[in-house]
Amino acid sequence: MPETLDSVVGESRDRLRAAGIRDAAVDARHLISGVLGLSLAGLMARGGEPVDPADAARIRAAIERRAAREPVYRILGAREFHGLTFKLSKDTLEPRPDTETLVDCLIPHMRRIAARKGSCRLIDLGTGTGAICLALLAAVLDARGVGTDISEDALATARENAQKNGLAERYQTLRSNWFEAVEGRFDVIVSNPPYIRSNVVTELEPEVRCYDPAAALDGGVDGLDAYRAIALDAGRHLETDGVIGLEIGFDQKQAVAALFEAQGFRLLDSSKDLGGNDRVLIFGQDVKGSHDR
């Protein structure tokens, strides 16, 4: 009797449970739907249909990779973020739902700037897949963006993602270590920099520790190295009335705010993520001080 989708889903779920995967049923459905090019609803609706042996083999290979703790979307090679689909590569961080909070917080600022000036110029420091910058460009049609990264692999991936999402004409890339190779000023500076303390990186879940690039995770001894670098030079690259949007670790709000306030910025807004943790800080110029250093 031929295998059905339902039977393969059940077998896959049980295999992942046996491997200690926490959300075994969810991961099994996402993997199988991704491998077969089906929506989750389509997978359920076609549960009684037979599975081609070649498809069953591809599914089992993917399930074994997940059982070995490779993340679902690394296996599938792409992940959705803010309504767009982003290819992943070895030097890019997997975009996660909590980071959509940063995009949502910046859209109103960008629309305000674009309405006033007719355009909005954006730079995304450490762009990775390009997810943050490209999601913002998709939401604000009068905006143009630059994505920087130290990795050529990441920049190539970001350009490919821009092309696939129809945003290549408004997006360019630049190889740069934070602001080192950057020229000019921008209305919006955004970054999701590495912010995990060095001694914590080795304690992360295997899905993160073994598959996300270390350069996108390790923020130095106190997790704040990248924020210091950005704060130090942001004043030379931010337009008057521009904003800086940053993703932070759950316990870094006060420390990061202090770094930027010391460089002449003031905290305009902050936001929590889906889990209720501090996640986003928005800074503007402090009119009482000068940050043009």
The overall strand count is 9
Order of strands across the biggest sheet? 5-4-3-6-7-9-8
Tell me the number of structural domains: 2
Low-confidence stretches: 289-293
Amino-to-carboxy terminus distance: 74 Å
- Beta fraction of the residues? 15-25%
Approximate helicity band: 40-55%
Structural class: alpha/beta
H-E string:
HHHHHEEHEHEHEEHHHEHEE
What is the CATH level 1 assignment of the largest domain? Alpha Beta
- The CATH architecture designation of the largest domain is 3-Layer(aba) Sandwich
| Mean pLDDT figure | 95
Indicate the CATH topology of the largest domain. Answer: Rossmann fold
Largest sheet: 7 strands, mixed
C-alpha geometry: elongated
Q: For the CA atoms, what is the radius of gyration?
A: 21 Å
Number of helices: 12
CATH superfamily of the largest domain: Vaccinia Virus protein VP39
Tags for this model:
293 residues; alpha/beta; Helicase, Ruva Protein, domain 3; Rossmann fold; 2 domains; 7-stranded mixed beta sheet; two-stranded antiparallel ribbon; 12 helices; 9 strands
Can you characterise this structure?
The protein is an alpha/beta fold and 293 residues long. It folds into two domains: 5-68, Helicase, Ruva Protein, domain 3; 80-285, Vaccinia Virus protein VP39 (Rossmann fold). It is built from twelve helices and nine strands. It has helices spanning 5-18, 24-36, 40-45, 53-67, 72-76, 100-117, 131-139, 152-164, 198-201, 206-209, 225-234, 253-262; strands spanning 78-81, 84-87, 120-125, 143-149, 171-175, 186-191, 238-247, 265-272, 278-285. β8 and β9 form a beta hairpin. It is elongated and about 75 Å long. The termini are far apart.
